[in-house]
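Structure request: UpxY family transcription antiterminator, Formosa undariae.
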Amino acid sequence: MKSRWYVIYTKSRNEKKVEEKLNRLGIEAYCPVKTEIRVWSDRKKKVFVPLLPSMVLVRLLDSERNSVFEVPGVVRYMFWNGEPVVVREDEVAVLKEVEQSKDMTLESVEVLKPGAHVEMSEFGFDAQYGEVRHVSGSQCWVVLKKLGFVVKLQLQ
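Returned structure:
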């Protein structure tokens, strides 16, 4: 039987710890992160923030799914229509590419209002179009219904 990528929920702010502990147990885990500059009154610091808050991807056989609960901080699996969510290998590859890319940004935005459709194939997603759900300042949430994802885009 082939291993598949599943999504697990973690306790808030435990994503990296859970990923590290799962990997130490021999379970392939992946928590995509982005780099942000946080500013305090006395300093600036580069921090790594999870792309998928409170979520970690794990790759394992279906029969091994319960082994993740040996790690403190794991809450439950993500389910869709009564089945655990399975993430395709190419979707994980896109997340890894986005994480490593320094220059993956939108080139231009004309009108971005809730309900508008955005071409997503250029970002590596199979879904041809995503629907803009919410726009706030320089951020935009796009729903990819066919994939079951909400993607947060940073507008520049």
